[in-house]
Amino acid sequence: MGQLRPLLFGSSLVVIALILAGCDPFAQPDSMMDEYVERVGRVMERSPELQPVPSGERMPQRRQRRLAMPALDMDMLDFLSLYGCELQYVVGERNSVMGRVMQPLNRLRYELRFIRAARDCLPAIEQPALRRSIEQAIASKVEALPIAAWNATWGTEEIESLLTLSKGPLPTELPSDQARVLAGDMQHFNDMLAAVFAGDHSLTLEYAGPIQQRWESQHLAGQLFLSAHLLTARLGDATRLLQTRLNGRPLCLDNKPNIHSKRMEGVLYNVYSAKVQPYLAQVRQVRDDLIPPLARMAELQSGTMPANFLHWYREYLVIENPAGLWGRLDSAMKRHTESWQRLLAQCGLGVPSG
């Protein structure tokens, strides 16, 4: 029994901590933003209306994103597998049972190995017809590399995990280097892709596997998208409350502060400035870290990008798109800041820059 007491005591502390966290509306981003809108409504003496937060647009399904790889003539592959150079082993690996179900990244590695092995074989080949056949095989493989690369990036399960919309928005407190480390991974991956597309077929892509494993274990990009949807919706809700007051009976008369303006300042500085703005800044920082390398990974492959992917790309990865997710969030922030500035000016108070 004595051994159970510390265990029970520890469990009680966990439960109490969870209860306290549950009582804090600012502990989670969705409850924080709901609470902000509620408080704006009380100060503006208006009933808040919380609009549904969009669930977000998912990428096209994997079978729609993956592209069919052109196949070499099987008779040629069988012949090459009998030829006495390294190409024999490369082709044999592809013809094996495991080789026929290669994951996309391994398929890209195989295509690069085939090109290298076939080029290494060429100097030893004396028969003109065979030499021409292998040269044609090399040209075919080089031409198909963009398809293999697309499947090894945007066609993978790992990228789905990174972009999943099933894990909720970004937490209110995020390790400061998490997004930067992930962005560094992407930049390194993009550099490898750019080198391959520039004609460097010597790369073994040994670092690509660990990078994609980290994609699979993190969900930061999808959480970022959900945060942007949440902020756009709730800032819009709060702005409508501010606008209805601006369009109705003034909060302050003759530009003089009053009890209502004091309450308004409390919400503005104690909630918006102290809670909401730091979260907005965090979302913007994660966006600035992650979206550019993700966009580059798509832009490097714009010539291969399937048509059904283009809308998703423009919605989430083009920051400058005014109709996209980031354009809508920027507009919501601008309208919200302008509404607060007008109300403060109406009460003769200082105007924050937002």
Number of discrete domains: 2
- On the 0 to 100 scale, the average pLDDT is 88
Helix content: 55-70%
- Count the DSSP helices: 14
Largest sheet: none
Intertermini distance: 58 Å
Order of helices and strands: HHHHHHHHHHHHHH
Instruction: Supply Rg.
Output: 28 Å
Number of strands: 0
Strand content: under 5%
The best one-word shape is elongated
Q: Strand pairing plus helix content: what structural class?
A: mainly alpha
Kindly describe this structure.
This protein has 354 residues and is mainly α. The protein folds into 2 domains: 26-55 and 161-354, no CATH class; 67-154. It contains 14 helices and no strands. α2 (29-44) runs parallel beside α11 (220-246), α4 packs across α5 and α11 runs antiparallel to α12 (259-299). It is elongated, with a radius of gyration of 28 Å. The relative contact order is 0.13. The model is unreliable at 6-11 and 13-20 (pLDDT under 50).
Which descriptors would you attach to this protein?
354 residues; mainly alpha; 68% helix
Summarize the structure.
The chain has 354 residues and is mainly α. The chain is built from 14 helices and no strands.
What's the SSE blueprint?
Blueprint: H1 4-23, H2 29-44, H3 62-65, H4 74-82, H5 86-95, H6 104-121, H7 128-153, H8 157-163, H9 178-197, H10 208-217, H11 220-246, H12 259-299, H13 307-316, H14 325-346
